[in-house]
Design brief:
6-stranded antiparallel sheet; disordered C terminus; 5-stranded mixed sheet; alpha+beta; Alpha-Beta Plaits; 12 helices; 13 strands; Beta-Lactamase
């Protein structure tokens, strides 16, 4: 019995042929791809491979006795190549060792850039590779679909928290941010801002002018606050700014003054000038203070109402005395509730 190398290269391209002394006399084309810079032919099998299992195979005689037993082999050189093998005798002393990657087929294909041409046409590895490719394609399609769905979800959530006219946060976003800061017992400030004389702009120049003014005001507020602050439009001409980590009341006074000064500058619209101003009511919440979202906004409303009463275009800091004054006035003229202190 003899082995025809040309036939074996087709039927089992990942093989080795050994002579009676265990010297490699022929190397299958796929086996050679594992060590393109290493001449395997002429080496002793025991020199080229370490038999890891069955344990104790260190000699050619022991290797011969392991005929038709699955061998666990490690090929010399780099990168590491752990292979499975089966040894068959030809009856005259020569041997053939047929090799495979076993369950490491995917690593082998990746590490050695193998293709379907490197395996026998009937090798189940080919079907496995096709299945892996199909699975990879399906997983990639699924990943891309999930990315699109997540993007659509993120866009929908963003829209749900955004005022469509100005691009600022809306009341829903404001409420959630306030709740988060209050639950964390954080120090922060709230500025409740109402535009003075805005109704006159709408009445005399139309709603297009009013929308333009609101967009200009939104830009001013973003420019005069920090990236970590939140600016929200919570009503027609009402805005609220949340300023986290405020450690000095002077900071609030300077920010409020800048906003008021810039909003007082006339806003051009077509051939007209839109003249408005801003009144601000500000509450400074200390980290040690317990409060609710409702009481915070009520206090900001009271401070805003005080700014309106004192002549507009100013900022009033909330103090407990404002609530006492509002309670006293309640016996004659009800104080304006939140959002009613208008131009």
């Amino acid at each position: 019995m003899g082995f025809n190398p040309d036939v074996l290269d087709v039927l089992c391209p990942m093989h080795l042929m050994l002579d009676a002394q265990g010297i490699i006399t022929h190397v299958g084309p796929t086996t050679q791809k594992l060590r393109p810079d290493m001449v395997l032919q002429g080496l002793s099998f025991m020199e080229a491979f370490n038999v890891m299992r069955p344990r104790g195979i260190k000699t050619l005689a022991a290797l011969r006795q392991a005929g038709q037993v699955k061998l666990h082999l490690e090929l010399a050189g780099t990168p590491p190549a752990r292979l499975k093998g089966v040894l068959v005798h030809d009856g005259g002393g020569a041997m053939i060792v047929n090799l495979s990657f076993g369950i490491s087929i995917l690593d082998g294909v990746r590490d050695y850039a193998l293709t379907n041409a490197d395996f026998a046409a009937t090798d189940l590895a080919i079907e496995m590779l096709y299945l892996v490719e199909a699975k990879s394609a399906a997983m990639e399609a699924s990943r891309m679909l999930n990315q699109r769905l997540q993007g659509a979800k993120d866009a929908a959530e963003e829209q749900a928290y955004t005022d469509t006219l100005t691009g600022l946060r809306n009341r829903r976003a404001l409420d959630e941010t306030l709740e988060r800061l209050l639950n964390a017992r954080a120090a922060f400030a709230v500025m409740h801002i109402d535009l003075d004389y805005f109704k006159a702009v709408n009445d005399t120049l139309g709603h297009a002018a009013g929308d333009h003014v609101l967009q200009v005001v939104a830009r001013i507020m973003l420019e005069e606050t920090r990236a970590s602050d939140m600016v929200a439009r919570v009503g027609g001409d009402e805005f609220t700014v949340i300023l986290p980590k405020v450690g000095d009341i002077d900071v609030l006074e300077r920010v409020g003054r800048r906003i008021i000064d810039r909003i007082e500058a006339p806003v051009p619209f077509n051939d007209a000038l839109c003249k408005i101003s801003a009144s601000i009511g500000t509450v400074w919440i200390q980290s040690s203070r317990t409060a609710t979202r409702e009481t915070v906004m009520e206090d900001a409303d009271l401070a805003l109402y005080a700014s309106k009463n004192e002549g507009r275009a100013r900022q009033t800091m909330y103090t407990p005395e404002l609530r006492s004054s509002a309670s006293s006035a309640n016996s004659t003229t009800p104080p304006k509730a939140r959002g009613t202190a208008k131009s």
